[in-house]
Write a structure and sequence with these properties.
Elements (H helix, E strand, L loop, with lengths): L10 E8 L6 E8 L8 E8 L10 E2 L13 E2 L4 E4 L3 E7 L2 H15 L2
Antiparallel strand pairs: 1-2, 1-7, 2-3, 3-5, 3-6, 4-5
């Protein structure tokens, strides 16, 4: 049965995402960047706890614990479109401050 759960922009989720070179898939944390809508597809950005190599347009979450995460985490590059049925769990939601930083990162990367 399809996942009929509604997801909101800023939700932190566990999803099955492809590797960037499309050689495989793995479960990883991500944040929903699309607004709520009736489509089965969501736009996501992956999260990582590997904080050593943060690139321009990426950022460490200031309120990672409030978002339901166990470790400090960063929003990474790599915008994905994913069917809701590939989402396994919702952990939490980004704080207002982290959502503002998410908007700034998207503008930087998309040059908006």
């Amino acid at each position: 049965m399809p996942n009929m759960t509604s997801y909101d922009r800023g939700d932190v989720i566990l999803a099955i995402l492809p590797f960037s070179d499309l050689t495989g898939i793995k479960q990883r944390l991500a944040v929903v960047v699309s607004a709520s809508h009736p489509s089965v597809d969501l736009l996501l950005l992956p999260l990582t706890s590997q904080l050593e190599h943060i690139q321009p347009g990426e950022f460490v979450l200031a309120d990672w614990e409030a978002a339901g995460l166990l470790f400090p985490s960063a929003v990474k590059r790599g915008l994905f479109t994913l069917d809701k049925t590939r989402i396994n769990r919702r952990f939490g939601h980004l704080s207002a401050a982290d959502l503002q930083r998410l908007d700034a990162a998207l503008r930087f990367r998309l040059r908006l």
